[in-house]
Design goal:
Blueprint (H helix, E strand, L loop, with lengths): L1 H11 L16 E9 L2 E11 L5 E7 L7 E12 L2 E8 L2 E9 L5 E7 L7 E6 L1
Antiparallel strand pairs: 1-2, 1-8, 2-3, 3-4, 4-5, 5-6, 6-7, 7-8
Length: 128
């Protein structure tokens, strides 16, 4: 049992880039778009980058009408399919899941987010 635990820890500690996930380097950069927020689509900037540990992580900034911008972070990125990832979003209002599908050229993405109490079906998209 100890070996199974160690194997799982090592597996989930690997950097995002492996031979199968080399395409992840193509998602880095800034995407301007919108996030469904407070019952309306709200302007946002979503950014992905590689940290010192070699993991793809991200940030987002929801641009409010009153210039009271709301920042958040994107962590725990997992590949769930071709050009498709799932991650955790975290901001001052809580946290939840964001599932994203990138275009073939990685110049845009379409995503859906949710929380523990809201199904992952609220739109979130961006383009370079």
């Amino acid at each position: 049992m100890k070996y199974l635990y160690l194997t799982c820890v090592l597996l989930f500690s690997l950097p995002a880039f492996s031979a199968d996930n080399d395409w992840l380097k193509n998602i880095t950069g800034d995407y301007e778009g919108e996030i469904y927020n407070d019952n309306v689509m709200t302007s946002a900037v979503t950014s992905f980058y590689v940290n010192k540990e070699g993991e793809v992580i991200g940030t987002y900034l929801i641009v409010e009408d009153d210039n009271d911008n709301e920042p958040g972070i994107l962590t725990n990125l997992r590949v769930i399919g071709e050009n498709s990832v799932s991650m955790t979003w975290i901001d001052k209002y809580g946290q939840g899941t964001l599932n994203v599908l990138f275009s073939e050229d990685f110049d845009a993405f379409t995503g859906f987010w949710g929380t523990e109490t809201v199904y992952v079906n609220l739109p979130w998209y961006g383009e370079r």
